[in-house]
Design goal:
Rossmann fold; Four Helix Bundle (Hemerythrin (Met), subunit A); 3 domains; five-stranded parallel β-sheet
Length: 425
């Protein structure tokens, strides 16, 4: 997980900023390669009293800063050409912008990019999937208020954003603020843009399944998934945003590491894309119940630890069991959101265990995923015949297992997801 926690403090009033010259408004440079995202945030920040400039690339952003006395930069990390971390380094290398606050937008699952942005000098990192326009504006204001201002700005009363809250406090406040957020993207505009992106995503995935490793094609697919995550977050469709981010991250890993380009990873990406299609017509916002958890069954302690780490990427807690009999008892005592089980275990094997779990009250539709070294995925075409919902082979990619589990949870779990930033510590 990230070395630097991303947390937000409880909302507490602070002394309002003394109004100065009405024309002296804070200046923000918004850097994002998605034109719709730039347009929406330009409108939002302008309405909130900011002077706004935009840039579609890192190169353009640095040119803009040459002639713009900006007070803060809102920066997407994944940019064409010069990436977000490189832009931050360039800003910090210039004497006139060395102290310029840079608020970064990030995919919650891109660990290396977040580390790079932090090391380069990002002032604050926000997850795209769970920060809508209202939360982003508040975060930017918090950075400005916390900074020693060269002049006074006309900004309304607001709360600071600092990394001092406990995990429980920050999660509760994040949830409360998210529920108060009002979508900045009309439903018809979202449906039109999301449908367009999903059609192109599906076409790109279909092309990739019939070809050898195509790094450029995979990166293009990842780019489209990122655009979908961005507009879904703006529209308040947090479930779609979370799944699109996870799928984007897996797709980038497959693109950058050819050994990860397998039938299994492409199948998992396809499952996620199909789930995104189903989510297009919904507008669900919320979390799984606080006690939602995954039951992880494997007689190998290391595998249980690896599954726990993978599911932690999507914020899902796990309850481990070293044998099927213990797992069956745990399943009877509480209702798990998802079950992941090995097949070859001493005593009761995974096939027998899955059949008995299905017979328990409340488990008829619960996702059951076999995590096993026994099965050759291309020939394992009917997991449902064994009472399982799906299968993934050992050794598995953490991001693949996380994406697969999230897709199954959204398909069968009321389209509600946990917060991928909630367990960052």
């Amino acid at each position: 997980m990230y070395a630097h926690p991303v947390t937000m403090t409880p909302i507490t009033p602070i002394t309002p900023i003394t109004p100065g010259d009405p024309s002296d408004r804070p200046r923000i440079l918004i850097v994002d390669d998605d034109a719709l995202v730039r347009r929406i945030y330009l409108s939002k920040f302008s309405a909130e009293g900011f002077d706004v400039a935009t840039a579609e690339s890192g190169e353009r952003a640095l040119r803009e800063l040459d002639g713009l006395r900006a007070d803060v930069v809102l920066l997407d990390l994944m940019l064409p050409g010069i990436g977000g971390a490189a832009v931050i380094k360039a800003i910090r290398a210039r004497a006139e912008t060395r102290e310029l606050p840079v608020v970064v937008f990030s995919n919650a699952y891109l660990d290396e990019e977040v580390h790079a942005a932090r090391d380069a000098g990002a002032s604050l990192v926000l997850g795209k999937s769970n920060h809508g326009p209202r939360q982003v504006v508040d975060a930017v204001r918090g950075v400005l208020v916390a900074r020693t201002a060269p002049r006074e700005w006309r900004l309304p009363l607001m709360a600071p954003v600092t990394p001092a809250a406990s995990a429980s406090e920050s999660t509760a406040v994040s949830t409360a603020r998210r529920r108060r957020s009002v979508s900045q993207l009309p439903a018809n505009a979202f449906a039109e843009r999301a449908g367009e992106l999903l059609r192109s995503i599906a076409d790109r995935h279909t092309a990739l399944t019939s070809s050898r490793h195509d790094g450029l094609g995979l990166l293009e697919l990842a780019h489209r998934l990122r655009s979908l995550a961005g507009i879904a977050a703006i529209a308040g469709h947090r479930t779609m945003a979370c799944l699109a981010e996870a799928t984007e991250s897996l797709t980038r890993q497959v693109a950058e590491q050819p050994r990860c380009h397998t039938t299994s990873t492409l199948r998992t990406i396809g499952q996620a894309v199909a789930c995104l299609h189903r989510l297009t017509g919904t507008h669900a916002v919320g979390d799984l119940p606080a006690d939602a958890a995954a039951l992880v069954v494997d007689d190998d302690q290391l595998v249980r630890a690896l599954v726990k780490a993978a599911l932690g990427k999507v914020g899902l807690a796990t309850v481990p069991a070293g044998d099927a009999a213990t797992a069956l008892r745990l399943a009877a005592e509480r209702n798990f959101a998802i079950v992941l089980s090995d097949v070859m275990m001493l005593g009761m094997n995974g096939l027998q265990f899955a059949a008995r779990v299905r017979a328990l009250p409340g488990y008829q539709a619960t996702p059951i995923i076999f995590v096993t070294g026994l099965v050759d995925l291309p020939t394992f075409s009917d997991p449902a015949g064994s009472q399982a919902s799906d299968v993934i082979a050992k050794p598995f990619l953490a991001l693949e297992l996380a994406t697969k589990a999230l897709a199954h949870l959204l398909r069968t779990g009321g389209r509600q997801v946990v917060d991928p930033w909630a367990n960052v510590n």
